[in-house]
């Protein structure tokens, strides 16, 4: 490794410097500062500064001490070093021993955030000849206050491999005392391999939880590592646009800041060291009796924008030493120094070292770091931080603004807030994925060459939210036309997959909230209750000309006919054996035909024409009439019962009825929410239901019971012998709007889930959507058919009626205000049908004027 020594040679002025071998720009700025001072006759007048520069390995303290001894042997008056803590401790010990003022500028490895150098042991009572040009490290204090202002309770702290983690021990102790949940993770040099290993070793659920933890993160790393890390996590979809990351490092240039903003999504807060400068160009470049090089003091100059913090402190250190030499020459207290030897034990320290050290501490200098001075303990008290930030969003190149400043004396100057979104989403364009499902989402217009237009209940919900919040949206249908389920490989398909893989921001249709889906995406609060129903085909009515004979069996009818014949014959024989007395000239009508007709007439309660006056005949007919009364009454009752049974014998009135019977096959959409619900309640021991167990066995009895799409299930019901188990609201709409009126539905009376709007995991829009969606919550399930028989319009006003909740869209300016006593509210309740449920009626303003929406 190379070692470079720097000397300032003049008649009486000598100095030296040691730089880390990676500090080539420090060397350039050092030479520029010496050149500027050599041109300034007001400071050293006739004296000139001569220099010599060498470099050392920052991790080799022995080499640093060896080269420093060589410099002292040449007769230096001061030592300037830009090096890491490992070699700085050895140089500090040497400077104390030889009484050489040592201006130490701490340099962090590879641009990582600084950590405080460990204290070096010194002999008690001796002076500290090392002056800390860079102020002490305040990163712990700054980040603690910023995190507290944001109100974070849980976050991840990432640090790169070059950062000394001992530097944040105090911060971790304070977060632990305050009960904050902080996770530490080291970012390896090969970031791509690190991210790849995460996807290879983590299951899908673990990746979702990991994504959730990445919503809040603090980065202790160099700008180069931060840019590479942010790019990698954004490209691999590990973070969403609701994330908020804080990058803290004193060394962040404007170029670095622009690149970080371009590569990141979500919100980014950057904390860096800043140097207050006057706005006037002359005041920035002219400091007391010295003019700074224009390339370094002009903020618009490319070289000035690329200056590192150590470069600025090196320039000001040279300027401070030059002013110190000038003061010593003015006071006539100059102590020349012979060469010193670090090897000889008899070598004595420099006699003028103490005086030189006191002069350096006594006076300060204005330069590129605003103002450089030292306290009695040899530290620079002047340090300022600025806190910059962007807003939430996914647009690249978002604007950066200064949020606050921080300094050790005044603390935080400004207000920090981590509020996500208010009710203003203007300028936001959401990507909405949907599945066509009547009446929630339907295609209203499909013109070739133009985007499809959609309508339906869910679209009205989305339009109302868009009008209120101000966002725009682009809608598309899920490629596989499915709601989505977890596949054997751990991936989601359908609508859910579009959200999980962040190809869409919002999922909207008849999407039900299930525990499995909530583990992958976020949902708003339910805006409508959901229950399972079954769609059935009405029994076909047939005309039977002999239906009147159905109450009695054929054998019974034969017995009745035989009885009529037998009684008719008995009546004829009784009258023939004991004929009645007839008036003079009358002819007897007691024939076998008349007896039969008389018995039949009395049976059907129509009477007879033949007079029977004998006692035996009348006793016989009394018994027959009693028999006829019993038979006719039984026939009437059985006929009424038969007609009723004929009307309901093939109907199913509940899911329990459906589960008990085995004649009618039924099924649902494979891998749908209904399918998962039936399976869960049939197989999960914690929520097992006998009804669902029977349904699950029936659904899976054959491979033909389940379908791929709901339309296929509806088609099987219409043209076959099948029952389709599906979303009750959808089935209600299908039944009401069927042209042949061939369907009827049966639904569960106990809804245990609801419809919600699905969003990406950790979406910042969830809360604001939920706040607006809860006002349209429809508790009844399924909704009344009257809702689905007309176009739905979503509300901004809600009026409650004992039987109906009227929801009305925003009032146009030309329309008069609506009174709570509007005739519509008094005249058109939905009353009769399912009046025990609160109903929702959505109307338009045109309908309000005409009396019906």
UniProtKB/TrEMBL annotation:
GO terms for biological process: regulation of synapse assembly. The record marks 652 as: Crucial to convey clamshell closure to channel opening. The chain crosses the membrane at residues 554-574, 623-645. The record marks 679 as: Interaction with the cone snail toxin Con-ikot-ikot. Residues 1-17 form the signal peptide. Belongs to the glutamate-gated ion channel (TC 1.A.10.1) family. This is Glutamate receptor. SUPFAM superfamilies: Periplasmic binding protein-like I (SSF53822), Periplasmic binding protein-like II (SSF53850). Residues 439-501 form the Ionotropic glutamate receptor L-glutamate and glycine-binding domain. SMART domains: Lig_chan-Glu_bd, PBPe. PANTHER family: IONOTROPIC GLUTAMATE RECEPTOR. Keywords: Cell membrane, Disulfide bond, Glycoprotein, Ion channel, Ion transport, Ligand-gated ion channel, Membrane, Postsynaptic cell membrane, Receptor, Signal, Synapse, Transmembrane, Transmembrane helix, Transport. Residues 429-780 form the Ionotropic glutamate receptor C-terminal domain. It is found in: Cell membrane; Postsynaptic cell membrane. It comes from Gadus morhua (Atlantic cod). It holds the Pfam family Lig_chan-Glu_bd. It comes from the Eukaryota. Receptor for glutamate that functions as a ligand-gated ion channel in the central nervous system and plays an important role in excitatory synaptic transmission. L-glutamate acts as an excitatory neurotransmitter at many synapses in the central nervous system. GO terms for cellular component: postsynaptic density membrane. Disulfide bonds join 69-342. GO terms for molecular function: ligand-gated monoatomic ion channel activity; signaling receptor activity. L-glutamate binds at residues 512, 517, 727.
